[in-house]
């Protein structure tokens, strides 16, 4: 009796290492196309967000996107205006009154937001830092110096923070508001951080009558945003999406102490009662991004393999394995009403204007899902 030997078979993971492009192409040319992660080309990974995970931070969040886990903590520190070299702009009650009047008249709102955005960047009040040397992936071992990838990713996050105006500068200002009886500093210490416009005018008039200092900004909150990757299954482009989402979740969770400038102590005082901590002033239509990769199907017999009549496939939210095989990468950031905030594209020319419109629609759907998770829906 002849014994037929069993055919030599290899596990899928071994196939992926021996011939990664052919392995991925075989999945995408199947009908229907299915990625090794059992997702269709248009599917993004599921998002989980847990806020308030770090008790020692002013705000924190843990975000999981597939097998990628990111921890973000936000810590606020006080920056005195007098410590800023050549600080060019002192915010006073008169300037605030003019700003409110221009907004009521429908004039100057964009100009004021642009000026606040420039001041926020010039003062350096937002300081993100991304750490990859945590053992999150084989390429990022613990104990090493900051990699070029981490530094570049930090700059991308910082640039988008400033250009998208996610954080309102007004929420980071610490005011000095003298009272009519300037000898009683106790009353000034416990005055509200933000008062109505009429109260600002009354305080300014009383201060002028008493011959004391005007109502003005004396200090700022500086936000140190630390983002640590615990596990990583994104490529260099896709990890931006997870870092940005973790930062947004932490900023939404951030609560800053009630603070005011005390003339007697010549410094900032904070109320120790955590019940008086207030949230950050964030942009309502916060922008969210999503990355894509264009994979060129493997060649067979000198010709490109055709999957569903196409020689390339656009993969939504590619993982690390898929992104390493993509010839073209696109990252799109959109805000409310589908407004495009930022587009980053490198390599290839498969994504044209028509394809870009389709990708923007996918990002809008992704943003709706993420906003629901951020709001706990």
Describe the model.
This protein is 32% helix and 25% strand. With 377 residues, it is of the alpha+beta class. Strands 1, 2, 3, 4, 5 and 6 form a 6-stranded mixed beta sheet that branches. It is elongated and about 105 Å long.
Give me the secondary-structure category.
alpha+beta
What value does the Rg take, in angstroms?
A: 26 Å
Question: Could you estimate the helical fraction of the residues in percent?
Answer: 25-40%
Count all strands and give the number: 16
Shape: elongated
Largest sheet descriptor: 6 strands, mixed
User: Which residues form runs of ≥5 with pLDDT under 50?
Assistant: 180-197, 301-309
Order of helices and strands: HHEEEHHEHEHHEHEEEEEEEEHEEH
Report how far the terminal alpha carbons are from each other: 66 Å
Summarize the topology.
Blueprint: H1 12-18, H2 20-28, E1 47-51, E2 59-65, E3 68-80, H3 93-104, H4 109-123, E4 126-131, H5 148-164, E5 173-176, H6 185-189, H7 197-210, E6 216-231, H8 238-253, E7 255-256, E8 259-262, E9 267-270, E10 278-279, E11 288-296, E12 299-300, E13 303-304, E14 312-316, H9 320-323, E15 328-334, E16 340-346, H10 353-374
Parallel strand pairs: 4-6
Antiparallel strand pairs: 1-2, 2-3, 3-6, 5-6, 7-10, 8-9, 11-14, 11-15, 12-13, 15-16
Helix pairs in contact: 1-2, 3-7
Short description:
By secondary structure, this protein is an alpha+beta fold.
Descriptors:
alpha+beta, single chain, six-stranded mixed beta sheet, four-stranded antiparallel beta sheet, 377 residues
